[in-house]
Amino acid sequence: MDTRRRLTEAFDTWSAWADAQAGDGDRGEPHLADLAARLRGGRPSPHPAGVEHPVEPPHRAALVGRLAATLVEPEGREGDGDPGSDGLAEEVVAELAAMFGLPTAYGHLTSGGAIANLEALRVAREAHPEGGIAHGADGFPAHERRCDALRVPAHSVRIDSAGRIDLDALATQLAKERIGTVVVGAGTGTLGAVDPIADILALCRERDVRVHVDATHGGFFTLLADADELRDTPTARHLRAIADCDSVAVDPYRRGLHPHACGVLLFGAADGPGEEARLDQAPLGTTAAALWLTLRALPPTPEGLGEVLAGRLRSTRRWRDLIDGEPELMLYQEPELDILTYLALTGEPRPRMSSVADSSRHIVHADPPGTEHPVYLSTLHVRVLDFLGRHPRAVADRNDTHILRSTLLGPDCDAHVDPAHDRVTALAAAAPRRTHTAADPRTRTEAVESAV
């Protein structure tokens, strides 16, 4: 796509109309240079060294579509919506429903994945007003906060050593508590873990409990359920099971190469809740246009967007192998999708959790602006029992720690693997080390280990 030409065409169309109107002058023009200078201080996305956050930068088609719709269709006008953008919204909802195997689903656009999840939980509350909502206790409190806002009892379910909902713990909760809906994750925002959706669905159907899928982080990997990268794996089986769930929230912003502020909520039956399900009444014409054009450039098919995600999985696994063979680094857990979690070895026979946190902090902040070959990373907050469940020899000298988390971005992400790995390894080798002494605390660690 000739991005510059398309943007120029869209702007010229609007500009010809605007110049003929009585405007309010050029009061903003003196500040344009200041704004440009401020924005220039940041780094572009995607940056070749940016592996810190699991959010894909938008495709050029999405940016062109959003600008064109913004210029042509002012969002604030009164009325029942524009037939053009309404038709686009219906098309993209139908395409995403088909991607999940929900061809007869009802759905609509929202202004983000968070709103899509909130709307789904509101519908869940109305469907089972006497029951609470269960969700995985993965340390990300978003669903608990939504339940609090909706005044619905929230039930946190223990997770296993891979960050997924523990089936035995869920069965115990369902037998003990009044639960109307279980929220499962198709790629959690913390670790990229896929809950055992197929098994949870069977468990819930026996008890007339609804299942809502939070697919905002990893839902698009459903495109690879029958591809070489996931075929015949438990992950693929659970992604396929989304087709039988009651509702799904997906966020094209996360893996769909779409700009921020776009979500889609789908209900598994065509007779699902109608307009009364909407909490977000904001006009979404530009969102519909931008997402429609994005899905023309990268269709939600295995050969379209699926191929981009397949390349991401292959690159993630290659970096995983490099980390696994690196004496300065250690995997926190095996990556299920495209989120890598790892930590720097601290030089201690039994690494203290405080040392792990110190090393992570040093590595993240070691490359200031202007560094010749930088790498941009992020950390993930991890609770003590979650850490010791994976690394029982660690010394729990504090209740939590921070590990490193990375996601490869951009269409040429495989080219970034080796430079990113080499830089992270060098930073890990230069991180402060603690000298092991006989006085290292052991009692608390042994007590926690016995509880895990």
Spell out the key features of this protein.
452 residues; alpha/beta; Aspartate Aminotransferase, domain 2; Aspartate Aminotransferase, domain 1; seven-stranded mixed beta sheet; four-stranded antiparallel beta sheet; 11 strands; globular; disordered C terminus
Explain this structure.
The protein is of the alpha/beta class. The chain has two domains: 65-297, Aspartate Aminotransferase, domain 2; 305-451, Aspartate Aminotransferase, domain 1. It is built from 16 helices and eleven strands. It has helices at 3-19, 32-40, 60-72, 83-99, 113-127, 142-150, 167-176, 197-205, 234-240, 252-255, 285-297, 305-324, 353-365, 384-390, 414-430, 443-451, and strands spanning 106-110, 132-136, 154-157, 179-185, 210-215, 247-250, 263-267, 329-333, 340-344, 378-383, 400-406. The strands form two sheets. The protein has a seven-stranded mixed sheet with strand order 1-7-6-5-4-2-3, with helices on both faces. Helix 3 packs antiparallel against helix 11, helix 4 packs across helix 11 (285-297) and helix 7 (167-176) runs parallel beside helix 8 (197-205). It is globular and about 60 Å long.
Question: What sequence of helices (H) and strands (E) makes up the elements?
Answer: HHHHEHEHEHEHEHEHEHHEEHEHEHH
Strands in their spatial order, largest beta sheet: 1-7-6-5-4-2-3
The Cα radius of gyration reads 24 Å
Tell me which CATH architecture of the largest domain applies here: 3-Layer(aba) Sandwich
What general form does the structure show?
A: globular
CATH class of the largest domain: Alpha Beta
Percentage of residues in helical conformation: 40-55%
**Which blocks of ≥5 consecutive residues have pLDDT under 50?**
21-25, 436-452
Q: What would you give as the CATH superfamily of the largest domain?
A: Type I PLP-dependent aspartate aminotransferase-like (Major domain)
Number of strands: 11
Q: Give the tally of structural domains.
A: 2
Instruction: Give the class from helix and strand content and strand pairing.
Output: alpha/beta
Mean pLDDT: 82
Main β-sheet description: 7 strands, mixed
Strand content: 5-15%
Q: What separation lies between the terminal Cα atoms?
A: 54 Å
Number of helices: 16
Stated plainly, the CATH topology of the largest domain is called Aspartate Aminotransferase, domain 2
